[in-house]
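tool_call: predict_structure(chain=1)
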Amino acid sequence: MKKSFVIIVNVIIMAAILTFVVLYSRFENRDSYRRQIEHFEKTTVTMERVTENYLEGEQRICDAWAQYINRGNMTIKEAMDYLRASHVIEDSSTHLIFLDTLRGLSNQPKQGTTDDYSVSYERVDLLEDASWISDIGESINITRTYTNPMNGEQSLAFCNRVTLQDPESGTYKDAVLMRVIPISELEQKWVFPQEEFANAELSMIDADGDYILKGYSFKNSSFFEFYKSYNSTDPTSSKELFDRITSSTGSISMLNSHGKECILAFTPVVATTGWTLLGFVPAEDLEADMENWLLPGVISTGLLILFLFDQFYMMQLNRRLQVAVMEAESANKAKTDFLSAMSHDIRTPMNAIIGLTTIARKNLGDAKSTEENLRKISLASNHLLTLINDILDISKVESGKLKLNPLTFSIVETVENLVNISQPMVREKEMKFSFHIHHMEKENLYTDQLRLNQIYINILSNAIKYTEPGGSVSVDMREEYSTVQGSARLTYIVADSGIGMSPEFMETMYEPFSRQTDSRVSSIQGTGLGLAITKQMVDLMGGRIECKSEQGRGTTFTVVLDIPVAERQPDESRFDGIDVLIADEDEIFLRTAAEELESMGAVAEQAHSGTEALEMIVRRHESGRDYRIVIIDSKMPDMDVVEMICRIRSQVDADKPIVIVSAYDWSDIEDNAKEAGADGFVTKPVFRSTFDNKLKEFLGTEIKSVEAEEDDSDLKGMNILIAEDIDVNWEIISCMLNMLGINCERAENGRICVERMRTAGDGRYDLIFMDVQMPEMNGLDATREIRKLENSRASTIPIIAMTADAFSENITECLNAGMNGHISKPVDMKMVIREIRKIKEMNEKE
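tool_result:
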């Protein structure tokens, strides 16, 4: 590009910028000046309303006094005594003047005296003609400005007629009641807002232009005379202008006594006859100087654009490209690191699932053991599903869109899940692990169990994960009094002897993907999401989380949650007089277990070692009062538990119920223990309901379930159409529903589902479960087609999405297509039943 061309272009642009600045500044100044004048006019009108309110208020006071005096047939002395008692404003005064003599009394003494209250209006040309004073309540009766004969101040007076009794003759004489207000006081009330109009002033004139209130800028005794003295005018235009000022609202430009342009705003005082309020302000106060900042700013910007544009643009473009490349590389690395790191968090429940599955296969002949293992697998699977959902929808966590789904559950299940999931890691690291509970009276709670599990598991798994082999992890859970009505306060404390955290990391440890910079941490896989999700969950549930940590000395996390208590709690039995022996080296477990058993009526004795326990059992046997049941820890300090069971069976009693409790995985000793004579195994911590069930089991008492099974018989006979293309998914959901007595029909894709609805009668189907991703026609399009069918049932039949797409935008898309609800895969049968029952109840209401 030629240099001359560039110069010409630069000159043209600069000229255009300067022209724009000049024109724009002038326009803005004129427009701003006009807006300021309009605002000044409105402010003057507002001040008139203030004036009107004030005048009406003062006149009402005067009218009230006059009415009271007239009704009381008072003498002038009695009336003045009343007025002195009623008068509370020090700067104003009250006069009573007889119209025939123009003399009377004041409530305040004459200036310079202390006892002269007489007042005379003989020399004041004010009351000779009192015909302008209207009857009480009809209008505002106010005088022009005059000199108060009592103190010489310029004042105004609010008036009304009164009749006073002559005490000597007993006749009545006409008088005037005057509420006298100094002009100085009025001037203090009527001022413009100083922050907007610092130099503005208010004046008030009557119909002749005489001042009632006079601003400091005005000379002469009449405003009209002042205007003609300093502004060029002729008699005709002056009369038109003065008529306009005294009869309308508006503004004009005029010169003051110094020849400066000013703005006069005027408006009639409605509460009076012929009075006009004047606002007066220098014109320069309303002008805005826009060039001061706009002109150099625009020119400087234009010069920068002209001379630096190319270089600046290229530098910015290169910088953005570099940043984009770095962000892309960082995103790829973060994705790779994240997918690699989260494998550990997923392996935690997977280890439990795989291990428990192996145990279940090994004990297929033991129905009770298999059932227990399957229950634990279900708990671990639910946790795995929750973990995957949170990883896939981390944006929901960060944006605070997580929702709680409360349900009634047993805290016993939650604790068992914690212990089961942690066992593989505890065993692998050969750690010392303990789990204690204190005063857990309310076992059935009502909240989001999965979220609660996630909070507890995240903290416990972190403690185990960041504790070196051979270390220790202890968990304490206690129930405390809650200030929230109907709730129990659960305090969950996890302490470890692990690597600890630095103070710097603790400031950011709840941020997503945040991990401590430490060689020992780097060698441990993790997503950096655990604490971030945990903090969000705790906040969502209205609790608090605290952390104490020291590098090299371990970490302690404390979570406090107020959780609603379920209405139904486990049934309890009494075991009065039942002798129980508890053998364990854990003092805390011994104490808490004994307290629970004794609260149920049993007699609990404690042994701190295997030898001591064996001696107590032998001694009891010799005395003829055997223990009814013996509870032994799996790891006694001085004797192998299998050996201990063998000695009890051989030396004392071959049939005595013996239960092994353990905070560890007992699979290694299970076969040997059973062969030696162990009757059962219980996972620590042991809850009150667990003791209740075990005592019933071994003492021959019927075992009652903690919570009655839900009755779903009301769903029997319902007809549901299921649109599902995958055979396994159809088999699972149809089998589950058939167990409830629900009739199911299958549509292999969306098109078949639409055809089924096209030919179906009105009452053939109660509900449709619709998969979203299907061949030929997906669930969204199928739903839209069904809603368009002429079949009356098609427009109202409930359609529930059943899909693996669990993101909030997918749910919204389903609802927009015409569906009534959404259930995420893998299917939770409780959610399915809840949706079915909701639809059934709606249909029954209709």
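agent: Residues 343-564 form a domain with the Heat Shock Protein 90 fold (CATH 3.30.565.10). Proceeding to next step.
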